[in-house]
């Protein structure tokens, strides 16, 4: 297993945000974590990526216990996540942002600030942008990009670090159906090309049914069902607790 989560729990005061959550995620798989607002999805993510300490439980990456590892060492060990560019690098051009993301993986790229090395770094950035349908946007400021393109820059930047496991909390929030499917198709392409494993939270059932290999349903901090999207959608407990008509319209 790329990622193993065992008996993970985290409370905030009297609120048991995550309660005894266990699952495994293998290479080349996409796992969707779904559930109503407040179910504990983001808390679960933050316990896995190191932003929050779990009260109990264990997280392992490629068999190595990382429960108490820092965010930085998790990243070095192959755990990636998407960041919202709007918050950190809006004043960079798309090409600069991409080049920086690539340099974070390979700082040697920037050791020579002159001539050839820098030119190669920018060429590499342009090749990545082309792969993500962003060739025409290279000179634009991140702050000026339309939202769907910005989400693609965020994805490309996260993948530039070549993670083995990618965590995405609500990657398609606020996107149209066509845009969110285009974004997730790029993720899927990477999963198939490199064996990347992806854990993501998602509210849109068309994305869950279109892209997830497996689904975990979280309600009030607990896993109430898991399986293929079809299995989970047919589960009476899931229908009662959460999916209801949403599953019917997406199926
Ligand atoms: P989801 O992402 O599924 O919407 P969250 O993980 O954000 O759910 O929240 C789960 C529960 O934990 C909610 O009841 C929420 O109010 C609570 N919670 C989340 N983060 C905090 C925090 N930092 N302090 C206090 N309560 C929190
Ligand atoms: Mg959340």
Automatic annotation (TrEMBL):
> Is Lyase set as a keyword in this record?
no
Q: Which Pfam families match?
A: ABC_tran, BCA_ABC_TP_C
Please give the superkingdom of this protein's source. Bacteria
> Could you tell me the EC number(s) of this protein?
3.6.3.-
Q: Could you cite one Gene Ontology molecular function of this protein? A: L-isoleucine transmembrane transporter activity
* Keywords linked to the UniProt accession: ATP-binding, Cell membrane, Hydrolase, Membrane, Nucleotide-binding, Transport
One Gene Ontology term of the biological-process aspect is: L-alanine transport
SUPFAM superfamilies to which the protein is assigned, alphabetical: P-loop containing nucleoside triphosphate hydrolases (SSF52540)
Residues forming the ABC transporter domain are 3-245
Gene Ontology, cellular component aspect: plasma membrane
Identify the Gene3D superfamilies for this entry.
Answer: P-loop containing nucleotide triphosphate hydrolases
The record, for InterPro entries, names: AAA+_ATPase, ABC_AA/LPS_Transport, ABC_transporter-like_ATP-bd, BCA_ABC_TP_C, P-loop_NTPase
**What top-tier enzyme class does this entry carry?**
hydrolase
Matches recorded under PANTHER family: AMINO ACID ABC TRANSPORTER ATP-BINDING PROTEIN (PTHR45772:SF7), CONSERVED COMPONENT OF ABC TRANSPORTER FOR NATURAL AMINO ACIDS-RELATED (PTHR45772)
**Protein's name in the database:** Lipopolysaccharide export system ATP-binding protein LptB
Q: Which gene encodes it?
A: lptB_7
């Amino acid at each position: 297993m790329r990622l193993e989560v065992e008996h993970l729990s985290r409370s905030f005061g009297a609120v048991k945000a995550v309660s005894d959550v266990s699952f495994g995620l293998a290479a080349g798989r996409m796992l969707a974590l779904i559930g109503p607002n407040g179910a504990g999805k983001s808390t679960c993510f933050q316990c896995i990526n190191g932003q929050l300490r779990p009260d109990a439980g264990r997280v392992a990456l490629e068999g190595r216990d990382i429960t108490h590892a820092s965010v930085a060492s998790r990243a070095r060990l192959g755990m990636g996540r998407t960041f919202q560019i709007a918050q950190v690098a809006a004043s960079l051009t798309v090409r600069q942002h991409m080049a920086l993301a690539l340099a974070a993986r390979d700082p040697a790229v920037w050791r020579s600030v002159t001539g050839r090395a820098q030119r190669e770094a920018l060429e590499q950035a342009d090749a990545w942008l082309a792969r993500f349908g962003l060739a025409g946007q290279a000179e634009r400021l991140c702050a000026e990009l339309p939202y769907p393109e910005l989400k693609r820059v965020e994805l490309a930047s996260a993948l530039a670090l070549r993670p083995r496991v990618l965590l995405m909390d609500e990657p398609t929030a606020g996107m149209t159906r066509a845009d969110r499917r285009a974004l997730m198709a790029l993720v899927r392409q990477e999963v198939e090309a490199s064996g990347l494993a992806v854990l993501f939270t998602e509210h849109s059932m068309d994305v869950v049914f279109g892209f997830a290999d497996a689904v975990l349903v979280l309600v009030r901090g607990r896993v109430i069902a898991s399986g293929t999207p079809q299995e989970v959608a047919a589960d009476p407990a899931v229908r009662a607790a959460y999916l209801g008509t949403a599953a019917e319209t997406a199926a």
